[in-house]
Amino acid sequence: MTKKIKCPYCGSEHIAEYLRGLPVFDEELQKAVENGEVIIAGCLVYPGDPDYRCRDCHKDFGGNLAKMLVSDDEVLEFAKKNGFEGIKYLGSYEGYHVYDALFNTDPNVILEVGFPQFILVKEDQMDFADDRISGDIRHYFASEEDDEDDEEEDEQ
Q1: From CA 25, how far away is CA 64, in angstroms rounded?
Q2: Which residues of the chain have a pLDDT value below 50?
Q3: What is the pLDDT of residue 67?
Q4: How far is CA 120 from the centre of its chain?
Q5: Which CA distances in Å does 149 have to 64, 143, 153, 155, 156?
Q6: How many CA atoms lie within 13 A of 119 on its CB side?
Q7: CA pair distance 98, 14, nearest whole angstrom
Q8: Among 41, 92, 121, 138, which is 20 to 30 Å from 146 by CA?
Q9: Closest CA to 99 of 112, 77, 114
Q10: pLDDT at residue 104, as a whole number
Q11: Cβ contacts of 48 within 8 Å, gap of 6 or more
């Protein structure tokens, strides 16, 4: 009997597993991807890559990714103290949990203000990403969004 994996943040058992490498894409894998049980994560593996993503709270965990010891509320409070209105959890990057610090939480308002401000969280520490890596982070998560857009187009 296999043990059910639970999200360490919300306790959900709705978990997706990251699959890395060059998998054989058969019907079983296709179904698992379509059902959200597996996330194809590419063939490159980095230190700090997570093993799982919660399908309910969308947080990454497992592997060498450090557990977050701060809550979303604490990250939001940190963002607000620094002039931002909201946060959005993006995922993990090089062992850090990454949040986008939002200037305006209204999705109909678009602000162009240079580099996005990312909050990096590892265990109980959080800080803004400096400009040197903000571009790398932006590119990393933009390529993930492009992959999701491609999948949505394929479904239509």
Answers
A1: 26
A2: 1, 151
A3: 75
A4: 11
A5: 28, 10, 6, 10, 11
A6: 28
A7: 21
A8: 121
A9: 77
A10: 66
A11: 63, 64, 65, 66, 92, 94, 95, 96
